[in-house]
Amino acid sequence: MRRHPRNKLLPESLRAELALQQALTRAGIQDFETRDDVGSRRRSQLRRFARLGITKPARRITKLTACASERGCENVGTCPAACHVASRIERGRLVVRIWERLQDCEGDLWLITIVNDAWRQDEGELYGCNPATLLKWLDRRLDRLGGIKSNLKGVAGVDVSVNEREGECFWQPHLHLLAAGVDKSKLKEALSLKTSCQTHKPVMFKPVQRSELATSVGYVLKRTVEKRVAYLDEEGRQRQRSVKVPSDAVAEHDSWLLRQAVTERFRVIGMRLSRRPLVDPTSFRQIVKVRRKPYSLPFWLRDDEEDDF
Fold first, then answer.
1. How far is the C-alpha of 173 from the C-alpha of 268, rounded, in Å?
2. What string of DSSP letters covers 92-151?
């Protein structure tokens, strides 16, 4: 007797994960952080908080502790930016949506980094950096574009790094801006900063190829923190090299993110993005034919703690 195909409903987190992987692959991103990466970082994060006695804000710490990373977040809107799971889901959605809107923009694409010495914070005082303040500063600078500001499309993100210069360590907030639709000369004029003796190039422009667009969007929205050590090369020019971030600094960075919503550090400019999720929850049913071997998920979607799919 012939056996008929039977329906199987995949767990929701795995369906969403499959949709995210497919969308990111379509955008050309092959190395976006995985669920395993997120699970490992989350466990390390909670261990650091416990070791250093970080218990506030208590409600958000409780939210992180209760989050089951293997099954994803029920609602990323209720999670703080420190949640690795919610951050990955929302940044993945934004990367895909922004890439969809920017890939058809005419003209050059620029990845701009803005470093202002006035934004720096001492170690242990990163809480003094308010992302909203930096984004408002950017808005005022872009207002200098005048009427052509309406042509600008892009995305901005607030980032921080641990910088070491002449033996002194401090937090250096900075802005990343991926911009299209406005000439480089106009952007340079609007964003110009006085060159200080501390920062050799306070505003840096890097051209972005269309093939690198999605990766550049991901860079603007990145979640990880870096440490940079300044030095002089053989010709006397100021350079920086990246080194491992101390555990205490990672904990301070995560504690700073605890006080923010997932997308609070980001600003989409000149575009309206669809709030539609990357996967339609009404079309999750998957037809699986019963063969000699049982159906199995790709290895990056397997969930060791949930085998009832």
1. 19
2. HHHHHHHHHHHTT--S-EEEEEEE-GGG-EETT-GGG--HHHHHHHHHHHHGGGGGGGGG
Q: Is residue 126 part of a domain?
A: yes
193: left (phi over 0), alpha (psi -120 to 50) or beta: beta
52-85, pLDDT tens digit by residue? 888 888 878 877 777 654 445 656 667 889 988 8
Indicate the number of domains in the chain: 1
- Burial annotation 252-287 (CB, 10 A radius, 16+ → b, else e): bbbbbbbebbbbbbbbbbbbeeeeeebbeeeebeee
Contact status, residue 171 vs residue 122, Cβ threshold 8 Å: yes
In a domain, 294, yes or no: no
Q: Which residues contact 31 (CB under 8 A, 6 or more apart)?
A: none
Q: Quote the domain boundaries for residue 73.
A: 12-273
Tell me, what DSSP letter sits at residue 34? P
pLDDT at residue 236 in the model: 78
pLDDT at 152 over 70: yes
Q: What's the CA gap between 160 and 285, in Å, rounded? A: 42
**Full-model pTM:** 0.81
> Residue 191: which of 268, 114, 120, 117 has the closest Cα?
114
Please determine, for residue 189, whether its predicted confidence score (pLDDT) is greater than 60.
yes
Query: pLDDT tens digit string along 259-274?
Result: 998 889 999 999 988 6
